[in-house]
Amino acid sequence: MGVDIFGILQIKHWSRPSNIELYIEEKTRAVRDGQLSNVKLFYSGTDLSQTFVEERIKSYCNSTQACRREVLLKDLGLA
Prior knowledge:
With 79 residues, this protein is an alpha+beta fold. Helices cover 38% and strands 10% of the residues. Strands 1-2 form a two-stranded parallel ribbon.
């Protein structure tokens, strides 16, 4: 999926992805060359209210009590 371009240090998502796997795939593109990166997700309540949005994405976006990285790892069974 996509292309491998090295040197990507910042990724901005202007709306929520439809599922968590797609989000993780896009998010990890920024760290493929081992550099630190900055990934931001911008979304609205309307984005989350759409019926085709996975509950896991809604949970991730609404998480305020835990580190979102930990939420992703837990969802993947890695934490």
